[in-house]
Amino acid sequence: MTEFFTPEAMTALFQVIMIDLVLAGDNAIIIGLAAAGLPKDQRAKAILIGIVAATVLRIGFAAATTQLLQIVGLLFAGGVLLLWVCWKMWRELRQNHSEETQAIEALSESDIDKDGKVAGSAPRKTLGQAAWQILIADVSMSLDNVLAVAGAARDHPNVLIFGLVLSIALMGIAASFIANLLQKHRWIAYVGLIIILYVAGEMIYRGAYELMPYIAGS
Questions:
Q1: CA atoms of 29 and 131, how far apart (whole Å)
Q2: Which among 90, 185, 201, 203 counts the fewest CB atoms within 10 Å?
Q3: Cα 212 from Cα 76, distance rounded (Å)
């Protein structure tokens, strides 16, 4: 338990919390966007599918990723993948936020833009189309989240466990709240982006250091 109170563990814990906040919000927005084009009676069903799938995938990826990152070369590959996540997040943060508003309206069933409708301007789709979009996005987002948390926690297994439990809790309980929070306070998302970029750089550096003996030996 005292592991949490060392300077290194506290730094890792802060990084993990920020990563979980930002990526849970990003995942919730994607789920909300996919569900926004459905009739009201189907939206809740699609959102539930998305949150349950994200939770199950995070548990599954957590079990595999912590072991896989021990394989030489995969730490480097994980860092490169997180760089792509950073680029994707940067583009999303710079884009128009009208789609995000539609997503949050779908998640919270509230008329945020005061147009008299909930997610009224979202393109229409079927429940099957929405569920498929959500599942594909959940696979990518869940892997990103687990990789980032594992990279930030490094040699602190208790911090890693806490981060993964927090990630699942945020998706299962507070997805709508977190998405709304990030839309209102964009600076939180930018801080999270910087932390993920730092974690990606450190994973690439440590991964390259692991690979050097193999490269030199060849």
A1: 14
A2: 185
A3: 11
